[in-house]
Design brief:
This protein has about 375 residues and is mostly helical. The chain is built from 10 helices and 8 strands. The protein has a 3-stranded antiparallel sheet with strand order 4-3-8, with no helix packed on it. A 3-stranded antiparallel sheet has the order 5-6-7, with no helix packed on it. The chain has a two-stranded antiparallel ribbon with strand order 1-2. Helix 8 runs antiparallel to helix 9.
């Protein structure tokens, strides 16, 4: 039994190494800055740098993979160049620079001017459209390619060996696909579930895969895609559009004039129902974003504790390091569960909303409310 558990434990410990490496690099950089009179290790900045999007893929120290910068300005036109020209935000290039918030702004300085000399008043932020290939864009592309490869291989296996027992990757994916079909789509949408299965499967596996990629980065400082509000908002908007464009007259009748309700009550109830149409996807957006973001912040906070106490005394930092590592392994185990649960909840609630919109006959809404309440509790 111990032999079976040890690979899992080693994997969880390995998942914590990138965060430790990056945090250590932050301490080294900040100590070098302290020698010239700047601030020491800033845990808040370290955490924000790790969970936010960036114009380069950070590996360790000052080593990073530069990404393409694509900026359009009404005055300067289209500019395309590598983010390496910014030299980690210390230099300007082609009239642009990276400010402290990792945003590209235009400046009135020469290209080689030190960015620290540019004040906020000298930064030009209006009329600039940043459409760069950022770290999250690369992570999104990688996850899409992985999903296409995985499900393309599974689909090819089904075509090559119909009516046969699944093998290899097919045997791993089939239980998950059946789980989404039977426990999410079929039970929540009803007889018309097959029409919406591609969407439900896509959002479930897309969210779950990116949750896992955020926990097991290929490089130190992996992307936090599902912890980005723009990604969760896009997923929520897609659920809203599918629900609205699939809704039948019974659904809209319940929204604008719920049956059996006095007219004077509809004056209050109808605006609430209309607001609810938009509030449900908003809850989906916030739930996924907040849970994934919070998990990453907590894990990185344990890393920061090592170096905060290490600045006081090396022995104290070493002692706190053991405790922090144990907590990080625990958080990694918890985040593996949370990553699956958040994908399940997002897909389940989306299926419930779609099911309510395509229901053919008038029905009492208590069952629908009970399903929603049960899903929200999860």
């Amino acid at each position: 039994m111990r032999m079976k558990k040890s690979p899992i434990l080693l994997l969880l410990v390995f998942m914590t190494i990138p965060a430790l490496m990056n945090a250590q690099d932050s301490v080294v950089v900040n100590h070098s800055e302290a020698e010239v009179g700047l601030d020491k290790f800033d845990p808040g900045k370290m955490i924000i740098d790790h969970i936010s999007d960036a114009h380069s893929w950070h590996l360790w120290g000052h080593t990073e993979i530069p990404l393409p910068v694509i900026v359009y300005s009404k005055d300067r036109g289209l500019s395309v160049f590598s983010s390496s020209h910014f030299e980690h935000g210390h230099k300007t290039y082609n009239g642009y620079m990276l400010n402290e918030a990792n945003k590209i702004v235009a400046v009135n300085e020469l290209e080689e001017t030190d960015a620290h000399s540019a004040t906020i008043n000298e930064q030009i932020t209006e009329g600039i459209y940043d459409i760069s290939i950022t770290k999250n864009v690369i992570s999104l592309t990688v996850s899409i390619i992985l999903l296409l490869l995985i499900f393309g291989s599974v689909a090819k296996a089904y075509k090559a060996r119909p009516n046969q027992a699944p093998k290899g990757l097919q045997s791993w994916m089939e239980p998950l696909i059946l789980f989404v079909r039977d426990d999410i789509a079929k039970s929540s949408i009803g007889p018309k579930y097959q029409k919406y299965m591609p969407y439900i499967l896509t959002i479930f596996f897309f969210i779950w895969l990116n949750n896992l990629l955020g926990l097991i980065p290929v490089f130190p400082g992996g992307a936090n895609l599902t912890g980005n509000i723009a990604i969760t908002m896009s997923l929520a908007v897609m659920t809203l559009l599918v629900t609205v464009f699939s809704a039948n007259k019974h659904y809209w009748h319940h929204v604008f004039a719920m049956p059996g309700v006095p007219v004077w009550v509809l004056i209050i109830l109808t605006p609430i129902e209309i607001l609810g149409v938009f509030l449900r996807p908003f809850v989906l957006m916030i739930r996924l974003f907040a849970n994934i973001m919070a998990g990453h912040i907590i894990a990185l906070s344990f890393v920061a504790l090592i170096f905060i106490f290490g600045e006081m005394h090396a022995a104290v930092g070493a002692g706190i390091g053991v405790v922090s590592l144990l907590f990080m392994v625990f958080m990694a185990m918890l985040e593996l569960l949370v990553g699956f649960l958040q994908a399940y909840v997002f897909a389940l609630l989306s299926a419930i909303y779609i099911g309510a919109a395509v229901e053919e006959h008038d029905h009492d809404t208590h069952d629908y409310d009970a399903h929603v309440e049960e899903a929200l509790i999860v």
